[in-house]
Design brief:
Order of helices and strands of chain A: HHHHH
Distance between the termini of chain B: 30 Å
Distance between the termini of chain A: 35 Å
Strand order of the largest sheet of chain B: 2-1-3-4-6-10
Largest sheet of chain B: 6 strands, parallel
Oligomer: heterodimer
Largest interface: A-B, 12 and 14 residues
Strand content of chain A: under 5%
Number of helices of chain B: 20
Number of strands of chain A: 0
Helix content of chain A: over 70%
Amino acid sequence: MNDFFSGIYEKLYYSSPFSDDVYQEGIYGPLGLMGIIGALLMMAIFYYIINRPSFSRWYHWLIILGIHFALQFGICILQTKPKFSELNIQYSSEYWSFAFVHAILSTFGYILFSFMFRWWSKNCKQTPIPN
Amino acid sequence: MPKPKLFIFGIGGTGSRVIKSLSFLLAAGTEINASEVIPIIVDPDRANGDMNRTVDILKYYQRIREKSYSPSTGFFNAKIATLNELVSKEIREKFTSPDFRLELNGVQNERFRDFIDFNNLDPVNRAFTNLLFSEDNLDADMEIGFKGNPNIGSVVLNQFKDSNEFKHFASNFEANDRIFIISSIFGGTGAAGFPLILKNIRNASDRLSNWAFLREAKIGAITILPYFGVAPDENSKIDKATFISKAKAALSYYSRNVSGNNSVNALYYIGDEDTKDYDNQQGAAPQRNDAHFVEIAAALSVIDFMSLDDKTLQNENGRALNPVYKEFGIKEDNPRITSPHLGTITQKSIMQPLTQYQLLNMFMRDRVEETINKHPWSNAGKIKIDKNFTTSAFYNDWLRNFNKHFTEWLQELDRNKVSFTPFNLGTGEKNVFNLLNDIEPVKGWNPAAKKNYEFFIETLNDAEKKVGDLPAEQKFMGIFSQATKKITEKKFNW
């Protein structure tokens, strides 16, 4: 799983030795899974848990997208920074760049899952773009 | 067994107003056991405000139904047709009235003395005529009706049996069809017209098509006793002090020639002692009375008549074998009638459909413009309900104007005496389901549950899945019919 996800992340962001350390610590795998599960969960929250006519417009969907982006950004920072601090490895801008890429990838997942699974939502199936 | 056609004769202003009430009940989806309802309005007063309002409403009804009816919708369920539409194109172009009115000849720009050619009568007949009619009667201008003089009406309306409309009515009348006659007993047109039309049907000439069917026709009628008054006016020929005496005189005649000789299979009576005085308008456009609960009850008699089994309405030699006589009642006498005051059967047959229609009316008033194209009920599927729809003649003209009449009808019923006020007409966006007076909506335990129009929209979205892709007008009415049905079941346990 680490290998699979590293193949995806490192196509978008590779910075040596940061990315090598991420790979070595086996962070790619769990982070990738959190990104996918998080995207599915946020999609489900919007389309099936909130699922309200008063919260069904494209900008409501964007609000959830924004929250998801922020959450995944934070999750990535929390997955990397404390671990490397424990190992006394110092990085700075690499954390933010990597977190940004992770948030983008996960948000892409949110968008994909929205268009795949929205059809059974009573109130939001035409959000963000009517078919 | 196919459903029968129903020919309704609505005589005079009261006849028009009852047909108006019936139209709204049918538009809301109240069921009637008829394949087609053919109203025929009999009123010499062409400019009569009540009659013209009813004709407008009927025309909107037809146009809306033609575009929007589908098995998915209960609204505008019953088919309303003109007599015109039953006849062939050639006949239609030559003779029949184009809409729901029966053309009466000789009443425009003529006084009664001219109608009976009084000046050319021989002295004996002239003397006899002077015994039956006063100078006022002879000088009566009939253009705005008979002004409470059934003696004039009974002469003028007798032309009915020779009219083209009667011939077309006869030729389209089938053995299984039924007839219902609506009239007041205390006016001029209704009191005269009812026994005349009845007699002309039961004694239909054997030269007419289907004369045998007419003689043995299943006929119901409602005769409406005084239920309103008119303000005193020395310039008017109409005086409410004569209403009761005229009703008594007419009832005496009916006891020999209507109920007394079993001419009618089912005779309904209704009236009210607690009356309000309307403006004293003798006729024409200003005669436009507020709607009254008695008219709704009278409309229910039509529905009740159509629900009676054929076995109850059998005839022999043009006479009813077992005539039925009925009066209307409510559970509780109250100057302000709401749904709980109605009898169980009345509540069941009209309150759910009327509530459904009022919900549609409210949503169109408050939410259609701002929700169009924003929710699945309007933007899902191949056929969208969008701005093109809301600017179409169907929505923007016919349905909106029909609903304006509906709202006006509810407002008139509310302010009349006795008041019929099932709906809280001031209900707003924060309390949508408090629309029924004296009935609390069911409230759930979940504080996060959707409320008011949000719940309404969700129910519409759900209904859209079931209705599927139909032409926009059918889709719109189908979605609202199904959604409002579900709302009334959930919120009021109907």
